[in-house]
Each structure stands twice: as structure tokens, then as C-alpha cells.
Design a protein that fits this description.
Strand order of the largest sheet: 1-30-29-28
Distance between the termini: 25 Å
Number of helices: 0
Structural class: mainly beta
CATH topology: Methylamine Dehydrogenase, Chain H
CATH class: Mainly Beta
Strand content: over 45%
């Protein structure tokens, strides 16, 4: 397969079919004040059909409900908001702040998780709040010897952080951490069922295989594992990737799952036999990747610092998983969060619009496009 077909197109050829634009505008003061150059504005040149302004922090997580008609937005120190796209109305919000940048519906959309919490998505009732990984993480840093005046290596410990989540309709909730472990919770009973040990690096990607007790995981070293959650046993390990895993997901209707790493290597595996079926390189660095719920599409947001290091260019690409075909490409400054709907029909992008300011901050914008 010719890898060059997956390279970024020239800017003049970058196109995205914009059929359903929705724009939610959020005032943000604490995360992107003037002078902070983590630019994330979205400007597609199409007038939005709807705008919403509130005095909250930026949106750093977005996700769609299964029927694609409900978009959920979360951000640091701000409510989790449920928006109905067809009427462009706010349905309700959850007052709890997240701060984790992670948001996940269960497959049917009856439950939603953010950070360590799980809610009933219909009523907004908090079902469980997990206690989090209890292990400490060792952090190396450089300090100064006060006597000799020389730099010395210092080792400190900090609480383990949350790096990945996934959620099933029965309430089973998987969390990955930089302590190299995975915890399996029964969120309906707030009970820790299993602690999965075996990864040698931070676990950055998780995905349950629906209809089974299997869980996919990928870590920062590139290792992938398939776990039997009922026993805590790792039944397969894969070492093809050499860079951090940025996304992993089963493709519905098949025995195949796909994985993508930071270098842009996309692999497809048979999860029953453990065999590598196909591999291809997208020829781009992948900071983040997100699959649709059915696994047939994935979206990659990438940054290019070559033109202006203080204001990087962002390209958001939507690919077909089985073929690696580039389906849509959107040129914009770097986003904070991207998500595909359950069947890959809609793309949501959250970021900061530096062209619009208020007092001491910028507008945070969430936009949605049809990418059929």
C-alpha cells in the first residue's frame, strides 16, 4: 500500500463537507488568558446556526450519545452540559466539574462517565464516584544541591493520574493510569472487581469488546494487551508498535480491532487469533486519536509548528479504519478536543477562538459538522 496517499493534503485542497454546523460559544478566563499561546481557535468560515455564551471555563471534552442527537460538553471547573442537536437546546447540566478531559457514554447511551464519576444519562443521577488508583507514581526531576551548588536528580512521588476510561451498559467501568495498572469497577455497586497488572508504562488507551468480558489496552511503550476481565488474565500481548498508543477499538461486525500510535502507524489485528492482519502509516504525528463507537472511522488531530512556533496549524482528519482512507480534512488552529459520533456521521471539535475576546479571556467554541 502506498503510504503517501495518507499524507496531509496541501492547504488549498483541504475540504470538509459542512452540512450541519452548530456552534456553542463559551467564555473562558482561567485556561486561555491573553498571552497564553496554546491557541485552539476554530474558524471554518461558515456562519454557525447557533451560538451559546456562558461564563465558564473552556471545553476540553466532547462526546455524542448513541443516537447522535445529543452532544455532551465538559470542561475544567464547569458543568457537564447535554445539548439536543436537532432543536439546538440545552437539555440539562450536571454541576460537578471534571478536570480530567475525559468523557464517555456506555454503548446504549444509558450511562455516562467523566473522570472518576458515572451518572445515569437520562436522569442525571450520580451512580458512583470511584476512589481512584491508590498507587503512587515516581517522578524524576532536576534539583540543586544546596551545599555543592550542582544539579542533582530528585525523585518524588505523586498520586496516580487518570489516563484512559471505558464504560459498559452494565456499569462495568475500566480506568487506566500512569501507575501502569488498569482497574475494573462495578460502578453500580462502587466495587473494585479487578486490578490488571502487566503493563510496563502508562496506560493511555482502553476499549471493551462488546458482548464479551474482554478488554483492549495500550500503553506509552506501544504494548497492547487483551485482558479477560473476569479473571484478570492477559490472554494476548502485541509488540508491533514502538510509540505510545493513542487509540484502540474493535470494528463492529468483525473479529478485528485497530490500534494507532503516536508515529501514525495504524495496525489491524484479529482479536481471536492474535494475528496482525494489516498495517499502514498515516505519515503524520498523532497527538490524539478517537474512534467512532462502531470503530469504522477514527479522527486524528495533529499540529504543525513549522510555519509559526507560537501559533501552530492544526489539521483534523477523519479516516476509514479498514482501509486507512482519508475521508475528510479540516484545517484549523489546534483543537482541545475532538469526537466522532457513534456511527461516524458527525464530528465535534472544541477549541478557543482567539479572534473573539472578552475582558481577560477568550471564547471557547464547540462546533459540529456532518462528515457522512
Amino acid at each position: 500500500m502506498n503510504a503517501s496517499r495518507f499524507a496531509f493534503l496541501p492547504l488549498r485542497r483541504l475540504m470538509l463537507r459542512l452540512i450541519l454546523p452548530l456552534s456553542l460559544v463559551v467564555n473562558c478566563t482561567s485556561c486561555h488568558a491573553p498571552g497564553n499561546r496554546r491557541s485552539s481557535s476554530i474558524d471554518v468560515g461558515v456562519p454557525p446556526l447557533y451560538k451559546m455564551t456562558r461564563s465558564q471555563c473552556c471545553a476540553d471534552a466532547v462526546t455524542f450519545r448513541r443516537n447522535d442527537d445529543v452532544l455532551v460538553i465538559a470542561g475544567t471547573a464547569s458543568p457537564i452540559e447535554f445539548w439536543k442537536l436537532s432543536s439546538q437546546q440545552l437539555i440539562y447540566s450536571l454541576p460537578e466539574s471534571t478536570g480530567e478531559g475525559m468523557l464517555m457514554f456506555s454503548p446504549s447511551g444509558n450511562l455516562i462517565a467523566s473522570g472518576w464519576k458515572v451518572w445515569d444519562a437520562s436522569t442525571g443521577k450520580l451512580i458512583a464516584r470511584m476512589s481512584g488508583h491508590r498507587r503512587k507514581v515516581t517522578v524524576d526531576s532536576l534539583g540543586v544541591d544546596s551545599v555543592k551548588g550542582k544539579s542533582v536528580k530528585e525523585t518524588t512521588q505523586k498520586p496516580a493520574g487518570l489516563t484512559a476510561i471505558d464504560l459498559l451498559d452494565n456499569g462495568w467501568f475500566a480506568t487506566g493510569s500512569d501507575d501502569k495498572t488498569i482497574e475494573i469497577w462495578d460502578s453500580r455497586r462502587s466495587k473494585l472487581e479487578q486490578v490488571l497488572l502487566g503493563h510496563q508504562a502508562s496506560v493511555g488507551a482502553l476499549s471493551f469488546l462488546q458482548g464479551s468480558d474482554l478488554l483492549l489496552s495500550g500503553d506509552a511503550s506501544g504494548e497492547i494487551k487483551i485482558w479477560k476481565t473476569s479473571s484478570g488474565e492477559a490472554i494476548h500481548s502485541f509488540y508491533k508498535h514502538k510509540y505510545p498508543i493513542k487509540g484502540i477499538h474493535a470494528i463492529s461486525g468483525t473479529n478485528i480491532f485497530a490500534s494507532i500510535d503516536q508515529s501514525g502507524l495504524l495496525c489491524q489485528w484479529d482479536f481471536k487469533s492474535g494475528q496482525l492482519i494489516a498495517q499502514m502509516n498515516l505519515n503524520l504525528v498523532v497527538p490524539e486519536a478517537s474512534f467512532s463507537r462502531d470503530g469504522h472511522r477514527f479522527v486524528v488531530s495533529a499540529a504543525d509548528y513549522s510555519l509559526d512556533s507560537s501559533s501552530p496549524i492544526g489539521t483534523i482528519n477523519v479516516y476509514e479504519t479498514r482501509t486507512g482512507r482519508l475521508m475528510h480534512s479540516l484545517y484549523s488552529p489546534v483543537p482541545d478536543a475532538v469526537a466522532l459520533s457513534a456511527n461516524g456521521r458527525f464530528l465535534s471539535v472544541a477549541g478557543i477562538d482567539y479572534k473573539r475576546t472578552f475582558k481577560n479571556g477568550y471564547h471557547s467554541v464547540v462546533q459540529v459538522w456532518s462528515v457522512q
